[in-house]
Amino acid sequence: MFRNRHELVKLFIAFFIIVLVICSFGETSKDFDLKVFEDKLRFFLNTENLPTESSFESLAACVYGMFFLYNQRFDPRFREEGREVLEEIFEVLPDAVYQILKGMEKWAYDGYPLSKEHFLEAVENVPQSWWTNLQMMFYNYEIWRRTESADYMRETLKYAEKVIDDRSDVAYAYLVEMDVFSGDRYKDPERLYDIYNAALKRVADSPVFWRESLKIFYRLGDHESAINSALRLAELGRMDDESRFMLAQSWWHMGEKEKAYNALLETNLKVIKAEWRSQAYNMMGSVEEERGNLERAIEFYSQAIRADKNNVTAFKRLGLAYLKTDLERKDTYARYYLGIAQKLNPRDEEVNTALSELQRRIMVRVLLTIVLPILAVIIGLLILVEKLLRPKERLDV
Q1: Buried b / exposed e across 80-107, counting CB within 10 Å, b at 16+?
Q2: Which part of the chain has CATH 1.25.40.10?
Q3: CB of 97 within 8 A of CB of 37?
Q4: Nearest CA-CA partner of 199 in 225, 173, 223, 220
Q5: pTM over 0.90, yes/no
Q6: Is 81 helix (H, G, I), strand (E, B) or coil?
Q7: pLDDT at residue 367, rounded to an integer
Q8: Angle at which helices 312-323 and 349-366 pack, to 10 degrees?
Q9: Residue with the larger pLDDT of the pair 374 and 276
């Protein structure tokens, strides 16, 4: 995975130079070593690092990788570069390899339904190849993700097993099976962990495996396994901001709030989705509140609300935090934010109790600062009137 845009630009420049050299000088050999191509492809699938060598096998694997990454990230530079390189090398490619790459190009430009004919032709040409079966696995998996059809689930698992039987060191075959058995409709934790344990013996060196298994365990709520996957990913030097957030959230659920806080401090919260960013600020605010840093806590809670205006917990924590301050208008601020929290979740007992107490305090304050002074003035006036009238009454007598 690319760590920054500068690295991506450098890589594109390198590919342009490679293609330019090939176009300028050519290669006399038309041989294409499938074994080398398979190794390069496996390298990409397990690391998502694009091969940088100038051989046709590496360039073919690189074309596959660029279309694959486009389908994940939708950066048009990937598919444009992939198409350019494919046009330069297609004449030397075996038909099955060409069909796979053409199918990936179709997927990137026209959507996955139009890629099927190319993948099927590749499977017909090389039916026992793990990389042709891999494409049919991905194709059926994509449809299953959208439809949760039992038929496509069975096809997905069938091709995944074919991949594993032929080449057991391809991480995505295990990850696809794990994802299928983690879904609500076909959830099977026992099979999921059996697949996970099998993968540990064969693809433990794959950062892609640890990144994607982290997502699966995080979604399942298995925070201990999620933490393990995140730490293994960190050991391989491939930690990204989304993975770091999931690690922090998992630490939080395990009661390790300081570890969660430290992980969030290392996370670029601007690049993760708004809902997660809001949750991150909420966690950081909670830690600062426990430390007694109310001003810092209020700042984090406010950022959480700016990121997600439906974060009821942030409104609640912000309102309660204001009650702990010495601000002159703390009750006003607290009542405002707690009122929003109550609208978002009317059944929150802590919010309702706090608002009831605030209402009582406001009534007491109104009584002491407004009602009683007015009564005092009225009583004073009555006394004054009475004193003024009494002398007149005596004179009349």
Answers
A1: ebbbebbebbeebbeebbbbbbbbbbbb
A2: 273-397
A3: yes
A4: 173
A5: no
A6: helix
A7: 62
A8: 40
A9: 276
Cβ pair 12, 77 in contact under 8 A:
yes
Mean pLDDT, rounded, for 19-28: 42
Please tell me the distance from the alpha carbon of residue 67 to that of residue 108, in angstroms, as a whole number: 6
pLDDT recorded at residue 302: 98
Distance, in Å, from the CA atom of 207 to the CA atom of 337, rounded to the nearest integer, reads: 43
Torsion of CA 226, 229, 234, 236, to 10 degrees: -170
pLDDT band per the 50, 70, 90 thresholds, residue 394: low
Backbone phi, then psi, for 190, in 5-degree steps?
A: -60, -45
The pLDDT tens digits for 343-378 are 999 999 999 999 999 888 777 666 677 767 887 788
378 SS3 class: helix
CA distances from 136 to 168, 209, 284 (A): 17, 20, 44
Rounded to the nearest 10°, the torsion over CA 31, 32, 34, 37 is 140
What are the pLDDT digits (tens) for 174-220?
Answer: 999 999 999 877 889 999 999 999 999 999 999 999 999 999 999 99
**Cα–Cα nearest to 216, from 170, 174, 265, 161:** 174
Q: Which amino acid is at 68?
A: F
Give the Cα separation of 391 and 123 in Å (integer). 118
CATH number of 273-397: 1.25.40.10
| Cα–Cα distance for residue pair 258/202, rounded to 1 Å | 34
